[in-house]
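Subject: Interface between my chains keeps coming out wrong

I've been trying for a while to get a sensible model of this assembly. When I model each chain on its own everything looks fine, but I need the whole thing in one frame so I can look at the contacts. Pasting all components below, labels as-is. Any help appreciated, I'm running out of ideas.
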Amino acid sequence: MIALRGLTKTFETPAGSFAALRGIDLDIPQGELVAVVGRSGSGKSTLLNLIAGMDRPSGGTVSVGGRAIHDLGADRLAKWRGQSVGVVFQFFQLLPTLTVAENVMLPMDFAGRHPGRERRARALDLLQRVDVPEQADKLPSALSGGQQQRVAIARALANDPPLILADEPTGNLDSATSGAIFSLFGELARSGKTVVIVTHEREAVSGASRTVTLADGRVVA
Amino acid sequence: MIAPRWRKALRDVLARPGRSILAVLAMAAGVFESSAMLYKYAVLQPELTQMYGRTHPASATLSLDHVTDALVDSVRRVRGVADVEARPVVVARVRVGQDEWTPAVFWVVRDFERPRIDTYVRDQGAWPPADDALMLERSALQVAGVEPGDSLTVRVAGDRDLTLRVGGTVHAAGLAPAWMEHMVPGFVAWNSPIRGGATETAQLRIVVADHPLDEGWIREVADSVQAMLVRGGHEVGRITVPTPGLHPHAGQMAAFLYLLLAFGILSFVLGAVLAATMVQAWMAEQIKQIGTMKAVGATQAQIAGIYLAQVAMLAAAAVVVGLPLGILLGRAYAQFAAGILNADISRAPFPWAMMAAVVMVGVLVPLVTALVPVRRAARITVREALSDEPGMRRAAPPTDAWIAWLAWLPRPLALSLRSTFARRGRVVLTVGMLSLGGAAFISALNVAYAWTRAVEADFASRRYDLMVGLTEARSIATLERVLATVPAVEHAEFWPGASPYLIGAAGVPGGTVSLVGPEPSSRLLTPAMEQGRWLEPGDTDAAVVNRAVLTRHGGLGMGDSVRVRIQGRNVAFAVVGVAKELYPMPVIYAPRGAVLAATGQSNEMARSIRVVTRGHDDLSQRAAARELERAFASEGITVSGMQRMQDAKQGILDHLVIILSVLTAAALVVVVVGSLALTSTLTLNVIQRTREIGVLGAIGATPRTIASHVWFEAMVFGALSWAVANLMALPSSWLLETVTGRIFFGSPLDFRLSPVASALWLLLVVVLATASSVYPAQRAARLSVREALAHV
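Reply #2:
Try treating it as a single job with all components included. I did that and got this:
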């Protein structure tokens, strides 16, 4: 599913060059739930950004589902992302002026994947799946953190992508809610989706089929 | 069903009404001013350029001894004459107060129903007017202080007073407004009782065929008419050929229209810059949402579409708000300006095309200017957009020099200023826009100051208070005896004068020139000199000319001979100096003796008196004029004209109204646009520094302290714009003073800076900056620490 070869990423900062990733080689098969762990600054989020096509590598290649994405143009990358990847963020990143259902419909709108009249029904189905159907017509600000993250997961599933990437998805939630969110990711993996979670949570590590540990931009375990 | 992205576009606009209203107001201000200026331009431009032509102006006017219908028919048959009309003119005075008279001129009309040359339009009153009625030019009512139906006393031929009824008014678009000329123009019937006096002149107005705009051809035809009249035994006096096709105030009108157009375009540019500033700030605020949308699959075009749709909505709202208000102001101002210029816009069609252009441009310009910031925002990578690192998506951090410079300020305040001024592009735009308004404001005051100083200086060089004209020459001894009986009179001089033709470079007599003969030793006239020197005792055939003579006689210079044709012979004077005068008509000053010799006037007689009164203010001059009127009347001496210098000065100062009204009105709207830009910038700064404000609150800053930071920030913007406006005003003032001087007086005004303009702008900018800071300061002060820290 995911194949990374010689992946490097260097940032230019006022203090000089900073190598976030230093030659990563990694393969993740389809249907796996992978936890990426490591200390702050180890390169976890950078790795996730490169797999999602949200940033460009300084060197090496990124192949997802057999497609090399590291040299795609910005718009082709966006289209690919809309159809092939669902992203979940630590701070949910729901658009504040759209209702919960509209937030879930937004990726369908951008990708043009489903007919317009079917999008709301699909959004409601997804909200049902993540257990917040009654919140469909509320604004995100009316929801708790856990509910917002469930909505964010529903949005990630909007176009039924084979790959789900989550960056510290429970970093802003209490432990009980975190457990429920990780359960959701487990269900997704069992349904055949590949799930990569960047996390500090032990619970995620314990539920993952595989753990990748990063240190100073390298895979150490 | 509306797609979610378009719902987002709409709801983002509605979700923050304060910010959206600010954006709409900022764009509406540009639409408002540009539509007002362009409406005025669109309505006035065709009228001002066509109204003179519609009056069928005479190509030439010939003054002669008398005129009959048969003579008119004969002239019509002269080759090159397309039309001819007899229009005798009666020079008179009308009473505007006890012993106070204002110059008046009445044209005698053969047939009011069918005017053919230099036409007029009926305005109010019975038509055709009765034989004993006066039909005043509509702009003369104010000068004469009468209304239709009132009685007005007319003094004809210096001593015959007739009280006649003002039968109504006409609009004579070919005449300069009465208030501007400080005289009362009007029309009377062929059998009017004011006719027959010594101050009536028969006149023939002709229109030439074939080449109506060719001045040489017009003079040729006028000469043919003159020759025919002379052969028939008539005495032909003055032949006047006005500049073909040009209204007497064409220069002022052109300047007026130019200013309107320039300010209209400037307003659009300012509106566009303001729109770009606001969109740029909007994009900065939306950057995380843009990152999120890109993360879930939005392409650059889709992102750009959302924000351009928002800009289009705001721009459309701005047009809805700004356009009707602009049209209202434009209409009111066009009417005011039309009144000033004696134009009639009551039948002007609504300028649909211009307003449609304003609508289109009002929506398109913000869209076009938004393209760059929207495109830049749409191209940002997801990682950059979602990063919390300030360096990734915010402005560059302030430099060490900045931080050191602000060390004297309290730390929290220095932090606010550093954050604000780190966004240099926005600072430059905000200061720039406020400065433009300030520069326009200061320039308007500088032009007014330069104009007033020039007029004051010009009149200070004429150290007499009254200029008295008599209907016939009287002995100087008699006049001195009468003057001695008037206590208000301190001193008087008797300068001969005449109105000969100026002989041009080709040796052909052209228009008339005033020939004035002061004693070279006189202290009553000491004009500033552009070149050469003033007249000196001992000069015999020396002359000093003003700039207007040089304009009409290309190539004339110091040491050359200026020649005039007077009473059938040519007289030459040697030019020894060029006087710096505001008077736009040509004047030649020559020694009294030389003028007497040239005109054949007696040394013992005079028709013109320069009087110095004991008091020099307006009231003293008025009182002295009344006493002189009575004294001359008691001696049977008839006065043909009494010019008060304060009145003449005010006449020139009144011309300033045209330019100053356009400049200040336009400047004030630009100032308002600048203030909106400042409010917008301060508000966006508050929005973007919400977390920072939360931190300040958390460490103990009170809402009052936070609000005062915003106010201080506004003051810093105000102070910067004050300094920049003063610099920008230097070239713009110079340009405006040069252009207005050339248009109105034929030479640039001396460059002057008003001592109060800069101080007034400082005062105004403090008030504006304070007003601009109210909303953002309140917004900042009302933020709770929890909300501020949670702001994403």
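Reply #3:
Confirming on my end. Chain B touches chain A at residues 1, 3-5, 7-8, 11-12, 15, 288-289, 291-302, 379, 381-383, 386, 391, 792 (CB under 8 Å).
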